[in-house]
Amino acid sequence: MDATTGPPPVPQGNLLAQVPVDRDAERFEPLLDRPGLKIERIVSNGQASPPDFWYDSVQDEWVLLLSGSAGLHIEGEAAPRRLMTGDWLHLPAHCRHRVAWTDADQPTVWLAVHCAAATQG
Protein backbone atom coordinates (compact mmCIF):
# COMPACT_ATOMS: atom_id res chain seq x y z
CA MET A 1 0.00 0.00 0.00
CA ASP A 2 1.28 3.41 -0.94
CA ALA A 3 0.94 5.92 1.92
CA THR A 4 -0.20 8.63 -0.51
CA THR A 5 -3.04 6.64 -2.07
CA GLY A 6 -4.49 4.96 1.03
CA PRO A 7 -6.04 1.51 1.21
CA PRO A 8 -7.85 0.04 -1.79
CA PRO A 9 -11.64 0.38 -1.88
CA VAL A 10 -13.59 -2.36 -0.13
CA PRO A 11 -16.90 -2.92 -1.95
CA GLN A 12 -19.92 -3.86 0.13
CA GLY A 13 -23.53 -4.64 -0.63
CA ASN A 14 -26.63 -6.53 0.40
CA LEU A 15 -27.88 -9.34 -1.83
CA LEU A 16 -31.49 -8.75 -0.81
CA ALA A 17 -31.49 -4.98 -1.23
CA GLN A 18 -32.97 -3.28 -4.29
CA VAL A 19 -34.18 -6.56 -5.77
CA PRO A 20 -35.41 -5.78 -9.29
CA VAL A 21 -38.80 -6.96 -10.42
CA ASP A 22 -38.68 -7.69 -14.13
CA ARG A 23 -41.33 -10.04 -15.46
CA ASP A 24 -39.79 -9.96 -18.96
CA ALA A 25 -36.33 -11.37 -18.19
CA GLU A 26 -34.08 -12.71 -15.47
CA ARG A 27 -31.52 -10.20 -14.19
CA PHE A 28 -27.86 -11.25 -13.90
CA GLU A 29 -25.72 -8.92 -11.78
CA PRO A 30 -21.98 -9.65 -11.48
CA LEU A 31 -20.62 -9.13 -7.97
CA LEU A 32 -17.04 -10.34 -8.52
CA ASP A 33 -15.43 -11.37 -11.79
CA ARG A 34 -11.87 -12.70 -11.91
CA PRO A 35 -10.09 -15.18 -14.17
CA GLY A 36 -11.54 -18.59 -13.27
CA LEU A 37 -14.15 -17.16 -10.87
CA LYS A 38 -17.44 -15.28 -11.24
CA ILE A 39 -19.93 -14.56 -8.47
CA GLU A 40 -23.31 -13.15 -9.45
CA ARG A 41 -26.75 -12.39 -8.15
CA ILE A 42 -29.54 -13.70 -10.35
CA VAL A 43 -33.09 -12.47 -9.87
CA SER A 44 -35.99 -14.38 -11.42
CA ASN A 45 -39.64 -13.31 -11.42
CA GLY A 46 -41.55 -16.30 -12.75
CA GLN A 47 -39.10 -17.04 -15.57
CA ALA A 48 -38.07 -20.47 -16.78
CA SER A 49 -35.60 -21.72 -19.36
CA PRO A 50 -36.98 -21.84 -22.89
CA PRO A 51 -38.42 -25.22 -23.97
CA ASP A 52 -35.71 -27.70 -24.96
CA PHE A 53 -32.93 -25.35 -23.72
CA TRP A 54 -30.26 -26.79 -21.41
CA TYR A 55 -27.40 -24.98 -19.70
CA ASP A 56 -24.12 -26.85 -20.33
CA SER A 57 -21.26 -24.89 -18.81
CA VAL A 58 -17.54 -25.61 -19.05
CA GLN A 59 -17.29 -24.31 -15.47
CA ASP A 60 -18.57 -25.69 -12.18
CA GLU A 61 -21.48 -23.73 -10.72
CA TRP A 62 -22.57 -23.54 -7.09
CA VAL A 63 -25.94 -21.91 -6.44
CA LEU A 64 -27.76 -20.85 -3.28
CA LEU A 65 -31.40 -19.82 -3.25
CA LEU A 66 -31.67 -16.73 -1.03
CA SER A 67 -35.39 -16.08 -1.44
CA GLY A 68 -38.36 -17.36 -3.40
CA SER A 69 -38.49 -20.85 -4.87
CA ALA A 70 -37.58 -22.63 -8.07
CA GLY A 71 -37.62 -25.92 -9.89
CA LEU A 72 -34.29 -26.99 -11.36
CA HIS A 73 -34.33 -29.89 -13.80
CA ILE A 74 -31.10 -31.84 -14.14
CA GLU A 75 -30.77 -33.92 -17.29
CA GLY A 76 -31.44 -37.59 -16.59
CA GLU A 77 -33.58 -36.96 -13.52
CA ALA A 78 -37.28 -37.75 -13.79
CA ALA A 79 -38.54 -34.49 -12.29
CA PRO A 80 -37.21 -31.05 -11.38
CA ARG A 81 -35.73 -30.57 -7.93
CA ARG A 82 -37.73 -28.13 -5.82
CA LEU A 83 -35.48 -25.48 -4.29
CA MET A 84 -36.58 -23.33 -1.37
CA THR A 85 -34.89 -20.51 0.55
CA GLY A 86 -31.55 -21.74 1.89
CA ASP A 87 -31.19 -24.66 -0.53
CA TRP A 88 -27.94 -24.93 -2.48
CA LEU A 89 -26.49 -27.30 -5.00
CA HIS A 90 -23.27 -27.86 -6.90
CA LEU A 91 -23.51 -28.35 -10.65
CA PRO A 92 -20.27 -29.82 -11.99
CA ALA A 93 -19.06 -28.67 -15.39
CA HIS A 94 -21.21 -30.08 -18.21
CA CYS A 95 -24.05 -31.05 -15.85
CA ARG A 96 -26.89 -30.17 -18.20
CA HIS A 97 -29.69 -28.41 -16.37
CA ARG A 98 -32.55 -26.01 -16.91
CA VAL A 99 -34.80 -23.81 -14.82
CA ALA A 100 -38.23 -25.46 -14.93
CA TRP A 101 -39.98 -22.63 -13.05
CA THR A 102 -39.43 -19.82 -10.57
CA ASP A 103 -41.81 -18.23 -8.10
CA ALA A 104 -44.23 -15.91 -9.88
CA ASP A 105 -45.49 -14.29 -6.65
CA GLN A 106 -42.17 -13.01 -5.33
CA PRO A 107 -38.64 -12.54 -6.63
CA THR A 108 -36.41 -15.60 -6.57
CA VAL A 109 -32.91 -14.47 -5.67
CA TRP A 110 -29.97 -16.74 -6.41
CA LEU A 111 -26.30 -16.44 -5.50
CA ALA A 112 -24.29 -18.20 -8.20
CA VAL A 113 -20.58 -18.97 -8.01
CA HIS A 114 -18.95 -20.06 -11.27
CA CYS A 115 -15.43 -21.45 -11.06
CA ALA A 116 -12.95 -23.50 -13.02
CA ALA A 117 -13.95 -27.14 -13.28
CA ALA A 118 -12.24 -29.53 -10.91
CA THR A 119 -9.54 -31.55 -12.57
CA GLN A 120 -9.75 -35.29 -12.41
CA GLY A 121 -6.56 -37.04 -11.64
From TrEMBL:
CDD domains registered for this protein in UniProt: cupin_reut_a1446
Entries under SUPFAM superfamilies matching the protein: RmlC-like cupins
Protein name per the record: Cupin domain-containing protein
Species this protein is from: Cupriavidus basilensis
Residues of the Cupin type-2 domain: 46-113
Pfam families assigned to the protein according to its UniProt record, in alphabetical order: Cupin_2 (PF07883)
UniProt cross-references to InterPro entries, sorted A to Z: Cupin_2, RmlC-like_jellyroll, RmlC_Cupin_sf
